[in-house]
TrEMBL record:
Biological or metabolic pathway of the protein: Porphyrin-containing compound metabolism; siroheme biosynthesis; sirohydrochlorin from precorrin-2: step 1/1
GO molecular function: ferrochelatase activity; precorrin-2 dehydrogenase activity
Lineage: Bacteria, Bacillati, Bacillota, Bacilli, Bacillales
Reactions performed catalytically: precorrin-2 + NAD(+) = sirohydrochlorin + NADH + 2 H(+)
EC number: 1.3.1.76
Keywords of the record: Lyase, NAD, Oxidoreductase, Porphyrin biosynthesis
PANTHER family the record matches: SIROHEME BIOSYNTHESIS PROTEIN MET8
Protein name: precorrin-2 dehydrogenase
Domain Siroheme synthase central span(s) in chain numbering: 117-144
Length: 213
């Protein structure tokens, strides 16, 4: 069984070996993490070149050597040469986390299909059984959780912080945080009526505050 976690990899050294389609897919997943990204590969596809214009990553134009992973925290091996992927596995240290794109059995982790909407992250894994199914489920959920969720999550984050700061009583907090999930807040966010949405939230907050005295 795999253990699902959300990792903070800011400033961690992530080394991606290989510069093809799979490397590109993994780099997209690493977007916004603020990790130190290094790509080791004699070639990279045009999509990665384009991606590097908007994202921070260092490309070292060479074939893999063990020294390339010495400082790595996380290693993502995506070459099309199984002998190289095997060599990477042999040289990685016990404490380093390795993903072998052609060999989940010997990997320390696998990557799920992911929908990102601001801070909302919906990840789907089949435990390696069917990456295509993970992708299909993702496509289906993308319709339900569209781009508008980005603003909505931002509002929930903002409102929750206010609730946590201003309401000391745990059960009242929980009540308010549940009330915040009422669809009117989502609908007003989608309609762009931020003023009305915030007013309703403030009224709710005052009401609950009244109950706590
Ligand atoms: C979800 C996604 C995320 C991502 O890549 O970030 C992802 N694979 C995706 C697509 C995809 N991969 C493959 C196909 C072709 C169809 C097929 O073979 O089924 C397609 C479909 C396509 O491309 O359309 C081939 C494939 N994949 C793996 C192997 C090796 C093996 O199974 O032994 C082979 C055979 C290689 C060969 O033939 O040699 C292994 C893995 N792929 C995983 C993740 C991990 C398990 C995730 C899970 O289910 O939990 C795992 C274990 C390790 C890892 O890579 O993390 C991404 C969709 C993202 C998106 O579009 O949103
Ligand atoms: N996990 C997944 O989701 C998934 C999906 C499809 C394929 N795969 C596996 O991943 C492998 C890569 O797939 P791809 O489509 O990206 O292949 P690709 O041929 O597009 O890219 C391979 C890359 O590896 C580089 N490379 C080759 N030898 C190297 C070495 N010694 N050192 C550094 N870089 C080297 C090449 O220059 C190239 O950039 C496939 O062989 C397949 O087994 C995994």
């Amino acid at each position: 069984m795999y253990y699902p976690i959300m990792m903070n990899i800011k400033d961690k050294n992530v080394v991606v070996i290989g510069g093809g389609r799979v490397a590109y897919q993994k780099l997209i997943g690493l977007e916004g993490t603020e990790a130190n990204l290094t790509i080791i590969s004699p070639t990279i596809i045009p999509e990665i070149k384009e991606w590097m214009k908007h994202n921070n990553a260092k490309w070292i134009e060479k074939t893999f050597e063990p020294i390339d992973i010495e400082q790595a925290n996380i290693i993502i091996a995506t070459t099309n040469d199984s002998a190289t992927n095997h060599e990477i596995r042999i040289h990685k240290k016990e404490h380093q986390l390795l993903l072998l794109a052609d060999n989940p059995k010997d990997s320390d982790f696998i990557t799920p299909a992911t929908i990102k909407r601001g801070k909302l992250n919906i990840s789907i894994s089949t435990g390696g059984a069917s990456p295509s199914l993970a992708k299909k489920i993702k496509k289906d959920l993308e319709q339900q959780f569209d781009e508008k969720f980005e603003d909505y999550i931002e509002f929930l984050d903002y409102a929750r912080h206010i609730v946590l700061n201003q309401i000391a009583d745990r059960s009242l907090r929980k009540k308010l945080l549940t009330q915040l999930l009422d669809s009117k807040f989502y609908n007003l966010t989608v309609e762009g009526d931020v003023i009305k949405r915030n007013e309703i939230f403030k009224e709710m907050l005052q009401q609950v505050k009244g109950q706590s005295f």
